[in-house]
C-alpha cells in the first residue's frame, strides 16, 4: 500500500476532488477521495487535515451524504474523515452529530471504529459542550449495543486527557462507576480506559468514591483500572 506523508500531496488530491465535484458531481468527488486517500496509507493527522479542508467547500447540506458514502467503504480512514467532519459540525448540530457518530460506530462493528469516531465526536463534544453532552451520554449508557456503551469510556478518556473540568470529570466518573458491573470484554475496555484516565489526572475524585469502588457490586476489573491510573499519577508526580 502506497504511503502518503505530504500535506502538499493531500492538498493536490483535494483540489482534484473539488474540481471533479464541481464538474461531475458528488460521485466523482467520492471516487477521487476513495482512490486518492482511503486506498493509501495516510496518517490520522493528515486525514483530519483533509476533513477540515473538505468541510470548507462541501456545502453543509451535502456533508452528511458524503460522510455516509465514505463510511460505507469500511476503510479505516473513512472513519477519521467522517469523525472529523462531524466534530466540525458540533457547534451547530451537536445532537445530530452524536447520533450520526453512534450510527457509524454500530455499523462499523469494530473496536477501532468505536474509538476513532468516539474520540473525535463524543469525546470532543464532552470536552467542549459538557453540559449538553453529559445528558446524552447518560442516555447512551442505557443502550444494549456494546459499542455505544464502550464509547462512553472512550469519550471520557479523550475529554479528561484534554483537560475536562474536574466538576464534569467527577460526573463522568459516577456514570462509569454505574457501569462497573459490565461483563462484556469491549465494554470493560472502554469503561476501564475512561476510569483509568480519571484516576491518573484526578486522584482526589477516586478518594471521594472509595467506599463505592470497594463494594462487591464493583467488579475487580474496574478496581484494577483505577489502581493502574493512580499508579500512573504517582509516577508522573515523581518525574
Helix content: over 70%
Number of helices: 14
Average pLDDT works out at 96
Q: What is the approximate shape?
A: elongated
Order of helices and strands: EHHEHHHHHHHHHHHH
Count of individual beta strands:
2
Uncertain regions spanning at least 5 consecutive residues = none
Estimated radius of gyration = 19 Å
Provide the spatial order of strands within the biggest beta sheet.
1-2
Share in β-strands:
under 5%
Oligomerization category of the chains in this entry: single chain
Strand count, sense and barrel status of the largest sheet are: 2 strands, parallel
Q: State the end-to-end distance.
A: 41 Å
- Secondary-structure-derived class: mainly alpha
Pfam families: DNA_alkylation (PF08713)
Protein name: DNA alkylation repair protein
What does this structure look like?
This is DNA alkylation repair protein. InterPro entries: ARM-type_fold (IPR016024), DNA_alkylation (IPR014825). The mean pLDDT is 96. The protein is mainly α and 239 residues long. It has helices spanning 7-24, 26-38, 44-57, 60-71, 76-89, 94-108, 111-128, 130-140, 146-161, 166-178, 185-201, 203-208, 210-213, 220-238, and strands at 3-4, 41-42. A two-stranded parallel ribbon has the order 1-2.
Top keywords for this entry?
single chain, 239 residues, mainly alpha, two-stranded parallel sheet, 2% strand, elongated, DNA alkylation repair protein, ARM-type_fold
Brief sketch in words of this structure:
The chain has helices spanning 7-24, 26-38, 44-57, 60-71, 76-89, 94-108, 111-128, 130-140, 146-161, 166-178, 185-201, 203-208, 210-213, 220-238, and strands at 3-4, 41-42.
Amino acid at each position: 500500500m502506497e504511503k502518503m506523508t505530504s500535506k502538499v500531496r493531500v492538498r493536490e488530491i483535494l483540489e482534484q476532488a473539488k474540481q471533479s465535484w464541481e464538474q461531475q458531481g458528488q460521485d466523482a468527488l467520492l471516487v477521487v477521495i476513495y482512490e486518492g486517500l482511503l486506498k493509501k496509507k495516510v496518517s490520522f493527522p493528515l486525514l483530519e487535515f483533509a476533513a477540515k479542508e473538505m468541510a470548507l467547500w462541501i456545502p453543509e447540506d451535502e456533508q452528511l451524504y458524503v460522510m455516509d458514502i465514505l463510511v460505507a467503504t469500511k476503510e479505516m480512514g473513512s472513519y477519521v474523515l467522517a469523525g472529523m467532519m462531524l466534530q466540525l459540525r458540533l457547534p451547530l448540530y451537536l445532537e445530530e452529530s452524536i447520533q450520526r457518530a453512534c450510527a457509524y460506530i454500530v455499523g462499523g462493528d469494530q473496536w477501532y471504529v468505536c474509538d476513532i469516531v468516539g474520540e473525535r465526536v463524543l469525546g470532543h463534544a464532552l470536552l467542549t459542550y459538557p453540559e449538553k453532552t453529559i445528558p446524552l451520554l447518560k442516555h447512551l449508557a442505557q443502550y444494549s449495543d456494546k459499542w455505544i456503551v464502550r464509547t462512553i469510556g472512550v469519550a471520557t478518556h479523550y475529554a479528561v486527557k484534554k483537560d475536562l473540568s474536574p466538576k464534569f470529570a467527577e460526573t463522568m466518573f459516577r456514570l462509569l462507576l454505574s457501569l462497573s458491573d459490565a461483563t462484556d470484554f469491549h465494554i470493560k475496555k472502554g469503561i476501564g480506559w475512561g476510569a483509568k484516565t480519571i484516576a491518573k489526572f484526578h486522584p482526589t475524585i477516586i478518594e471521594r468514591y472509595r467506599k463505592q469502588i470497594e463494594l462487591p457490586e464493583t467488579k475487580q476489573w474496574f478496581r484494577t483500572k483505577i489502581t493502574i491510573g493512580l499508579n500512573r499519577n504517582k509516577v508522573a508526580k515523581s518525574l
